Amino acid sequence: MKEIYGNMWDFYGRDNYIVCITTNGFVKKDGTAVMGRGSALEAKQRWPWFPKALGESIRKNGNVVRIFNTSEDNIDGIVVFPVKHNWWEMGNLELIQESAKDLEAFAIGASDHIFILGRPGCNNGRLEWKDVKPLIEFLPDNVHVITRKVII
After folding, report:
1. What is the pLDDT of residues 65-91, one digit of tens each?
2. For residues 73 and 70, what is the distance between their CA atoms, to the nearest angstrom?
3. Distance CA 9, CA 116 (A)
4. Could you give the 3-state DSSP secondary structure of residue 78?
5. Which of 3, 68, 92, 94 has its CA 20 to 30 A from that of 134?
6. Cα angle value 84/109/146 (rounded, 5°)
7. Looking at residue 119, what DSSP letter applies?
8. Contact 91, 118 (CB under 8 A)
9. What contacts 143, CB < 8 A, 6 or more positions away?
């Protein structure tokens, strides 16, 4: 795992980069996933079809890491990285660690790609980076954890 600063969306669509958005596992009655804040909201704004696709996937496969194609030519995609089960909860450290293990498998299998992940659970999940970082430090060097804030 490497730590970097910037905007994750600056990497979307670049060759060999995959953006990871943090999500929750709540599916509304209409079948759409709740994507109301953070990188999930940004993804929903880019792809209005995405909440329905994610909701269907959660109902079928559970609240787990998965890859979605975001273009018709299947070249571009994003990874969904669950950090909590319900939108109103704090980030779940156990779920974050499980998601990191799944992301590790993807990253090892696609070692020619760089995965860009925001600090999971640290904004809308209300967790502290000092508590999350030790749980995901095992991620390989092709996973870059990004934050927009420069910490001095």
Report:
1. 999 988 766 667 899 999 999 999 999
2. 9
3. 9
4. strand
5. 68
6. 50
7. -
8. no
9. 1, 2, 103, 104, 107, 114, 115, 117
Q: Rounded to an integer, what distance in angstroms lies between the CA atom of residue 69 and that of residue 15?
A: 14
**So what's the pLDDT on residue 71?**
76
Q: Give me the phi and psi of 20, to 5 degrees please.
A: -110, 125
pLDDT reading at 152 higher than 80: no
Contacts of 105 (CB under 8 A, 6+ apart): none
Instruction: Give the pLDDT of residue 137.
Output: 98
Q: Read off the pLDDT of each residue in 27-36 and give the average, rounded to a whole number.
A: 98
Structural domains of the chain, with CATH: 2-147 (3.40.220.10)
Which residues lie below 8 Å from residue 106, measured CB to CB, with a gap of 6+?
65, 67, 79, 115
A 10 A CB-CB count for 78 gives: 23
Largest CA distance in the chain: 44
Residue 146 main-chain phi, psi, to 5 deg: -110, 145
Other C-beta atoms within 10 Å of 95: how many?
22
Q: Percent of the chain scored above 90 by pLDDT? A: 90
Inter-CA distances, 93 with 81, 85, 89, Å: 13, 11, 12
User: What's the rounded Cα separation, in Å, for the pair 150 and 69?
Assistant: 31
